[in-house]
Amino acid sequence: MSLSGRNDGKRDNVDISSLLAGYHDNLAHMTRNEAIVSAIDRAIDSGTLGQGARLPTVRALSEALDVSPSTVVAAYSQLRLRGRISGTVGRGTYVSASAALQSDGGQEAEQSAWASVSPQARPPWRRRTVLTSANRLQTMYPDALDCSRGKPDTSLILTELVRRAQQAAAVDTDAEGLQYAGPVAIPSLSELLAPRLVADNIPVSNASMVAGTSAQQLMVMSLSIAARLMPDRRHLVAVEEPGYQTVFDAFEYMGFRLVGMRLDEHGVIPESLDEALAAGAIAALFTPRAQNPAGVSWTPERRAALAEVLKKHPHAIAIEDDQFADIALTRPGSLLEGPAAHRTVYIRTFAKSIAPDLRTAVAVVRPRLAAMLGEAKSLMDGWTSLHSQNTLVHVLEDTELEQALSQSRESYRARRDTIMAVLSARLAGTGTRLSGTDGLNIWIRLPFGVAATDVVDNAASAGVLLVSGEPFYIRPGHNDVIRMSISGIADHEAERAASLVADAILAGNERQPISIPL
Prior knowledge:
GntR family transcriptional regulator, Arc Repressor Mutant, subunit A, eight-stranded mixed beta sheet, 518 residues, DNA-binding, Aspartate Aminotransferase, domain 2, 16 strands, 45% helix, WH-like_DNA-bd_sf, Aspartate Aminotransferase, domain 1, alpha/beta, transcription, 13% strand, 18 helices, four-stranded antiparallel beta sheet, transcription regulation
């Protein structure tokens, strides 16, 4: 088949080889059908594929690219929905007239202008990549087990407790409760949280609680304080790598640059923290328990070792995101105890344990930092709703809370244990490495030569949805890891989900020849 690229109405056939280069270039950071869509988009936009050009049949393209026909069908369907191609069964698939118009001069000028934009000003790519992939796969495979999203299990959200708490808070509401307020958590909330924090080895003596609407808001305010305290230093923040992709995007959106801290089974490696702070980072973000996406947690010994590193770098602010606190399995304590206590922001949220839309978080900080955090909060959005805080108070007072938290904790633990056991047994000897002792995610480092994009597509076709691990890094180029979330499946589905994932990884492993250089 040949392609002239003419826009004269003649329906030329496409040389499949003209799409191969673009497809293979995209595989490093896309799933297979996304790579096909992008390669065809690029060919249309560049004029290589003109109006009326006939695309390869599903069978021809699937054989040329060594992908399943369903992958090509999905790509063609996506392009057809966007108006880039058209056609009917038995008559062929062609580049549409509207696609050619979309490719005219304005786009070239726009791309030229875009090339001059600073990388920090470009739209966040990580969260968008995860959401786009998850939404696309769910649309294509609506009946598949969904292990692509890190939201809490809807069945474990404490709906009845929240409903009762909201009703009680509404009854309690008076005019003063609807007035302007300050950033400090209301006394009843502080009093209820204090014993819970102490039980988790979080020191609260000589500390204040600042209320926020989310962990991310409190993190951003903490970084703004670090930047104001150190105006002559680079805006560089140390983050766990792999780490939470939305926070990466948020920090870059603020103008911060990221430096990674390596992880092992106990969280951030102290030597890596030392390197990041020595490189100039003015703040470091940690997830003490149930880290997303690796599922690792500190030990008390690791926490103490990190504190000793921070002691060597007295300029740096430490931020702890204890996002899984009330249903976590471990209690490693906080950097609020130790030499960096006066410059530590411990953040506790309730989205995973109670309900995301509760929209209340609390930062525990020593007095000097509390004053600065309170000032930042006052200037950003004033205060966190007293009604929301009072609702959380009533949830924490509910006599059924501890039983509900225990049920959530046990359900997540059972799923993790089942999946880890199945994957460990099925993938033994392949070089696959697993982590995930707490939280909502299992992190899968694939055998040498197995591509995450292939595994994601294979697994989706088989009936389970996953996410490539690439967006959980600072930079693209990691096509060898998978995040498997456990919150979108029921307890009884965990074994099947793990078996399907193992099948997808083994299928990729069988196709990849491994050569060892001499």
